[in-house]
Write a structure and sequence with these properties.
Chains A, B: Its cofactor is pyridoxal 5'-phosphate. 2 copies of one chain form a homodimer. By secondary structure, chain A is an alpha/beta fold. Chain A contains 15 helices and 14 strands. About 6% of the residues of chain A have low confidence. Chains A and B meet through helix 2, strand 4, helix 5, strand 7 and helix 6 of A and helix 2, strand 4, helix 5, strand 7 and helix 6 of B.
Chain lengths: 427, 427
């Protein structure tokens, strides 16, 4: 395997290559990603069995053949191995054959653990003592926890007005928190400029950095392998709406564009290696919250580039990025796979979040629910057909955020137990 | 497979048997559990591969050969398949070779999902429209979510003074919540008395009911299989302190005694089937919070039975049960396996919780941290030796509860980014 310090970075757009560590942006301005030789890739199922690994715990590292770093010798936080589940009860809501990938079951409750794990492994490889990130949500928590587990110091840059609830979550893992007064988009780019690995001693794994995108792409490898095994349910997959070994579409929320880039990268690698046929490539759909939808706006307007917008507030705070650093790359991914980028109202997001919790038992954060709201919108528009299989990535658990709800409550006395229960059951 | 409606229940103590559904307590007063024929049990690893199942998502149902119900045809909430991880960074704190089983990575963030899944499967099998439970914490949340996913109505009985934060968590899955004024221990038993399955139409899966205990025992099957595969880490298991295929001890928190009973049941079944040698049986250690430790008290005093105590408040709210319905069974399990029941101070629990978050990256609830505090205490006492392998079950995620912390925060201006970071990194 090529290690990250030897690996090349390539620009998806103009094709220029650079050594990893030299820069994170191409001279053309677009973000870089790792350029690895994936020609020999094969699905690892049997191999892992032969070597005696427990697949249930191998997680993202199951795909280490296509990662720029080796798995660490040991970890308390194996990322990935989240289930892929068939959500038939939501088929009529989504108007398609719906599969869900609940990434909230990662160690710190979100998809970010996959990228963090790769960033931490690289930091350990290169002897860096510090890891850093710019985030006030899932990525900050993930980075803090993985740094703690790896014995690294962690620098987390958050906006000056971060709610105390979010700080409390982070603080358990004891990172160094920097509350920064100033433009958050500039902060993101300025930390990347400091990202000289061994030199300053801090490895920044911001959301669209090559290390993080490499880790995030394992979501796509994993869901495609699970789908392919025809085993996405427990214990079998009844009502599989499609006889194909590949879903017709993959739908996910988009913010910085890092995760969207990772999924696209996986599809490109799989077709290049021959593990995925060209006419089997799932369409990629990315979803934003309408109050803050720069990528969807560019898609709608047929533009070639994503430009910053003046955004409004949305309940989908984790994906409210008005100036997405990999926005244009995400836009390109959607077009390249015959997909789209759409945005949904907060009202539609609330409805999707509620349906996930009450019909599928899955409590997700609003930023994850946008993806299901997006599926519904795409079905309404005829872009997704009723007989198609659609995998929706639920990026994060809803249990980390407090949500005010209106519980169905009745106050009773113990003496009236049987009567009170019967009156509800029979009604 | 014997189905739950045909299955026998047996009393672990006097050996009496009953049909399932007739009662939940033996005439001698002790709790019942399923009496299944496990003589043909074999570790299912290869079998599952052959049938094309994805082991990463099969979860608890991987062990359906020893469960009283079949896996449902489909589910969005596959329980189990949580990793078993080696936590070398905590070896010196624990003074042994420490393994952790973070059950917070179950779909609703706790170990309870395993038992809930079995209860829900039984309800579906018997045509019950309702499932119920008595809980204000993890079990209530788990039951609400699984009921929602299975299309069942759910009745949750909580104390009248339940904090609104907990109600909000439940309410997302829209159960029928009954806030009950009256003694909580009596409420527990009175709901069991209503538990006539098909008749009243409500299947109660309280914490020590036979269905739940059956599901909970899969934790032990799973961790023993993972340990046996020598694959408890990613990707391999360096520094495995023991060459044995079985851990020397399993340590877990105890409250009602339901989970403790499940782990003991698994060990009994495994030895009966020949999958575990008699002299390989891990010692079982159960840990309570000192302010509320009826089982530890009975153990300490050498008594045969656990009796209710007047308890004080503890931070380990999820395990604060002063009148544990399966307390005597847990006590028996500890003695039978040459283990013990101990209690730890809230201060020791806080320290263990902090070490888990800062040295292993695992945020757990106080009720889980008591188990690690217990390991430390047992090592101090010489009951666990430094060269022994100990699996500690971390029952629930810490992300569902708000915790006040004191973050290491500094407020900076974007213009001072590089300088401020350097001053911290270099200090």
């Amino acid at each position: 395997m090529t290690t990250s310090s030897q690996a090349l970075l390539r620009c998806y757009d103009c094709g220029c290559t650079y050594d990893h560590g030299d820069r994170t942006r191409c001279s053309c301005g677009e973000p870089l990603w790792f350029d690895l030789d994936v020609s020999g890739f094969e699905w690892p199922a049997e191999t892992n069995q032969e070597t005696g690994r427990d697949p249930a715990t191998a997680g993202s590292w199951r795909y280490d053949a296509v990662l720029p770093v080796s798995a660490p010798d040991t970890t308390t936080l194996p990322p990935g191995s989240t289930p892929l589940v068939r959500a038939g009860a939501l088929d009529s809501f989504a108007d398609c054959g719906l599969y869900l990938k609940p990434e909230g079951q990662n160690p710190t409750g979100s998809f970010k653990d996959r990228g963090t794990a790769v960033g931490v492994a690289h930091a350990l490889d290169t002897g860096a003592d510090w890891i850093g990130t710019v985030s006030h949500g899932n990525m900050a928590l993930s980075t803090s926890a993985y740094a703690a587990a790896a014995g690294l110091e962690c620098a987390v840059f958050v906006p000056a007005d971060i709610p105390s609830e979010r700080l409390d979550l982070l603080a358990r893992h004891d990172p160094h928190v920097f509350r920064v007064e100033g433009d958050y988009g500039r902060l993101y780019e300025e930390t990347l400029a400091l990202n000289t690995d061994g030199d300053a001693g801090v490895t920044f794994v911001n959301s669209d950095t090559p290390l993080r995108v490499a880790g995030q792409k394992t979501i796509a490898y994993e869901l495609l392998e699970q789908f392919r095994l025809g085993s996405s349910n427990v214990p079998s997959s009844p009502n599989m709406p499609s006889s194909s070994a590949v879903p017709d579409a993959i739908v996910l929320p988009v913010s910085s564009g890092g995760q969207a880039s990772g999924v696209w990268k996986a599809l490109r690698e799989l077709t290049r290696s021959g593990a995925l046929a060209d006419d089997d490539i799932p369409r990629l759909y990315f979803v934003q919250a309408a109050p803050c939808d720069p990528i969807a706006t560019a898609f709608r307007e047929g533009r070639e580039e994503v430009t910053p917008i003046d955004a409004d507030e949305t309940i989908a705070v984790s994906i409210a990025n008005s100036d997405p650093p990999s926005g244009t790359r995400a836009l390109t991914a959607a077009r390249d796979t015959d997909g789209a980028v759409v945005s949904v109202s907060d009202e539609a997001t609330r409805e999707a979040m509620d349906r996930l919790a009450t019909d599928a038992g899955l409590a997700v954060e609003p930023s994850s629910a946008v993806a299901l709201a997006g599926v519904r919108k795409l079905s309404d528009r005829g872009e997704i057909a009723a007989d198609e299989s659609v995998v929706t990535i639920l990026t994060g658990s809803g249990y980390k955020e407090s949500v005010e709800t209106e519980p169905r409550c009745r106050d009773i006395d113990l003496a009236d137990l049987e009567h009170e229960l019967a009156s509800v059951v029979e009604s």
